[in-house]
Description:
The chain has 13 helices and 18 strands. By secondary structure, it is α/β, with parallel strands linked by helices.
Amino acid sequence: MTQDFNPKRRLLSAAMIAAAAAPTVGFAQSGDKPVRIGYTMSRSGPYAPGAQVSQEPNYLLWAQQVNAAGGLSVKGQKRKVELVSYDDRSEIETAVRTYEKLMGSDKVDLILPPWGSAMNFAIAPLANRFGYPMLAPTALSRKLIDMQLPYFFSLLQQPDKMMGALVDMLTANNVKTIAVIYMDDLFGIENMASLRVALRGKNIQIVESKSYPLGVKDLSSVLKAIKGMNPDAFIGITYPPDTILASTQSREIEFNPRIFYASVGTAFPLYKARMGASAEGVMGMGSWNSRVSPGAKAYFDAHVAQMKKEPDRWASGHAWAGLEILQQAVGKVGLDRKALREHIASTEFNTILGKIRFSQGENASIPGTVGQWQNGEFEVVWPANRATAKLIPVKPAWKK
């Protein structure tokens, strides 16, 4: 395949910030040398629904806010930010070629990560080779952490933590049987493996586990078979379109176990919009909402005001926290990428999610969590010391 690397630059304004399909968003000011920050994002293809909720809107909002404040502080000197971005079309090969160009020939000052575990798995070694710090808000892969790439930093809680929190919650609520469907890619396979490990020694039986391919259009036959097994809990390790598909088809066949967990996508405002009252009690991956800190409330309100939509209650918060960390690090040590890497690896940062520090590239500050839709908000319900609301232990019946 070939990739057209000729960007169409344009200035970002309040009226244009939502136009995430623009190949490049520029922020130049005469007489200034902008800080050029490169990335690819899935604006088309199967990864686009997640990328255009959890990541790119946050990149655009952050750049707008930074430039409105006079620019990014580079060791005390304000410089405008210029985002150099491309649609990777949800194609790993396209993303790899584009990042090679951004870092190799374009020599951008900094990079931002693409969306999703598979994309990050491909790009992280490349960023490490070129020496670019990479703060990833949507990489959910223990294998990637274990590669010990010095320039890679993962903000999300990893599969072992998330599945561990899920199993702890299931155990505390006397769940004995579960049925699982999972995406047949790195995200699904790794989380399924972590779930099996977390279940060791627990009195919980997996009565069914089924993988499915990217782009699946119908899960009804699998769900009907699972309904016949009458499990206490349903677990979907799913991407956003599949999360909604599994939920709507479960509602259609009246499959309503007392615990219904699916992710990613459950924490998206789109899930609430599509499911309506049926979202009540549904669980998934999520770790924040606007009540976790004053900064989270300010971010949430700014996102709604500028992007005309709510952020999701999981990776959007991590994306913003990553941008906060990058901004603080550049303000302290400038654009020397090796110095940035050392500073990020050795410093605790204040973010909208609370204090974050990294241990061997992993976010060591935030534990695994479980979220649940309650009265129109995706609440953190597990563990208790991170909870914004008490768990609803039995999901209400689906609403038609």
